[in-house]
Amino acid sequence: xxxxxxxxxxxxxxxxxxxxxxxxxxxxxxxxxxxxxxxxxxxxxxxxxxxxxxxxxxxxxxxxxxxxxxxxxxxxxxxxxxxxxxxxxxxxxxxxxxxxxxxxxxxxxxxxxxxxxxxxxxxxxxxxxxxxxxxxxxxxxxxxxxxxxxxxxxxxxxxxxxxxxxxxxxxxxxxxxxxxxxxxxxxxxxxxxxxxxxxxxxxxxxxxxxxxxxxxxxxxxxxxxxxxxxxxxxxxxxxxxxxxxxxxxxxxxxxxxxxxxxxxxxxxxxxxxxxxxxxxxxxxxxxxxxxxxxxxxxxxxxxxxxxxxxxxxxxxxxxxxx
Length: 322
Hints:
322 residues
């Protein structure tokens, strides 16, 4: 099986690829594909979103409800500005109205229109969702089931029924199934890991597309760290946990020469980057998630290694010794 780095790393909204990224994508996809593209946006008077199984059991704690509402408003997890989320949710809940794809406002009462079916499951996967749109007379305009299958991937009921989640069988120039095999390929080819993986990526994309995609991932990683160190306050949830990254950043900034006195200070910076990303993930900010398992890329060192390992063999790339 061949896996692209762009399948491993996804830009999305925390804290869970299956419970936030998938549901937001499914909601946006339903409105776009089954309402807007069919010319039914203006006649839609009500939308009902239901979640089932695991999504319903742990959904509110993982922000599934928030992700669904943002998706119905037309936002996608890899493009949304996380700074707009709190105010948008406050508007929806305060006015009990939602703007489908950001332009068609309808009544939306979260208590009746966003249902957590904790005792029910849809047939193909525990993370099931069902969206139904109605006209003013209460007649169904469209209804569709989706499944959030992990890593931010979403399939509809037809794809799930046909078992269309299949392994990629593309033939890459440097295949490997283990770390030992990867090192063996490097010794045989005389190439660095970075150069081999970059060559593998060219099976799916041009070099320009690879570089652009990597730049997008790297920009998202840096922005996540920067947002984490400038966002004080508490994390969502009943425990009211204080965010620690801003204070740690201020402390390190106040001691610019500490690294010269104690090299271990650099570890504090690595911990800061990791903490900033982890707190952003917990707060529902935009992160780069890795799969498997789905979790945020959580430090500058991780980001740098990931980026360098997939760069083209130019001055920006790792050398043969990487």
